[in-house]
Amino acid sequence: MNSNHHPLHVIIFPFLAQGHIIPTIDLCKLFASHGVKVTVLTTKGNLSRFHSPLTRANELSTFLHPIQISLIPFPSVSGLPENCENMATVPPHLKSLFFDAVAMLQQPFRAFLKETNPDCVVAGLFLAWIHNVASELNIPSLDFHGSNFSSKCMSHTVEHHNLLDNSTAETVLLPNLPHKIEMRRALIPDFRKVAPSVFQLLIKQKEAEKLSYGLIINSFYELEPGYVDYFRNVVGRKAWHVGPLLLNDKNVNTFDRGSKSAIDEASCLSWLGKKSAGSVLYVCFGSASFFTTRQLREIAVGLEGSGHAFIWVVRDDGDEQWMPEGCEERIEGRGLIIKGWAPQMMILNHEAVGGYLTHCGWNSSLEGICVGLPFVTWPLFAEQPYNERLIVDVLKVGVAVGVKEYSFDPEERTVIEAGSIETAVKKLMGDDEEAEERRRRAKELAAMARKAVEEGGSSYELMSDLIRELEGLRDRRNK
Ligand code: UDP
Question: Which ipTM was obtained for this model?
């Protein structure tokens, strides 16, 4: 670092959702470990999600500058209750109002940025106006959306060739990508299906991207080399892969990561401790997914029928109508149901876990990759169907459960029958050659991930490059 200048100061403002806050905390720690002064910006209702992991990181690490948290007021919107400052606490029918409030954060953000005048600001998804404000103030801005290269490339080719409008075939080939990627047309993410307020934010995102200096991506080169190159050369945007972010902090508390766990640590570990290595399937659909009662019943029957041990995380909505008669008794000792927030990283890290049924959210997928697990894939919305293609077709570490369409609305989705779930789980957890090969590949990916973040590794080096580039921008701006 050039001693004639103040330390590089970066402000990071993530979208107010668990899947964005968790990797942002990891990103803050990575910047801080490189000597950067970091301020993370959020609202009061989200403070607790940052406070304890960042306090812990500041205490246990030797950061030159402890990570700071700043707050801006969450706007009041008629009809949106006070506790709705995070996607996880917003019921589906209030999502649109929540996004209205998110759009209104622009005003307090402008005042904050003027006052703090950092060297760079990192914008979370749905907060694209950050680029407009930063550009007015001549502050470089970057994007951090919490997704990977392949999903961005797939989405680019779908848009570029207007595949959703130009094709009526049941299955569509996504042209010109590094691999042959075919998707059911109905499963291709169609962002026109989101609420109008969200769609508007996504349109603005596209426009504001032109003002962004580039993207920080939570991935590593060796995982998706063809897509990293495609993104830079064909999509034509600057991007730095600096992940897997979660592997950078050896002191991370894997138990209460993200939220307070609904199960105590000792009973979870004791349950897992009684299972043989690789015998347990972990089933979780992230922080923001909902299912119909009918679908939950099918999952219960499918998991029971698979004969394998499992941990299943179910969002607790108080309605237990989905539990099939006598199921709880029959699976006693073999199936553990966690209602609410699970200590996912702690569970995934346990040697008893041998497979992961996931909704293909990028954080969850990357967490599974980092611990060397193969997957059953069950994408629901956002860019999850693209991540399924990466896991199944490119990395070849997944078995698709057979999701038919892309939808935010649980009522709109075709029910996946218990039989399909049972078949996919048996295939994944089985011991034939195919299953063994998936396991072998998954372990290989985990080893590559660890290497990428070590000194000299692809992500480590690119993070150093990013910081040098930001310091150069700071110096030019200060001249
Ligand atoms: N997560 C967790 N416990 C849960 C559910 C989710 O720790 O019960 C964490 C998970 O480890 C991941 C994040 O929440 O880091 C979910 O992010 P992802 O991108 O996978 O999905 P999203 O929630 O955004 O759909």
Answer: 0.99
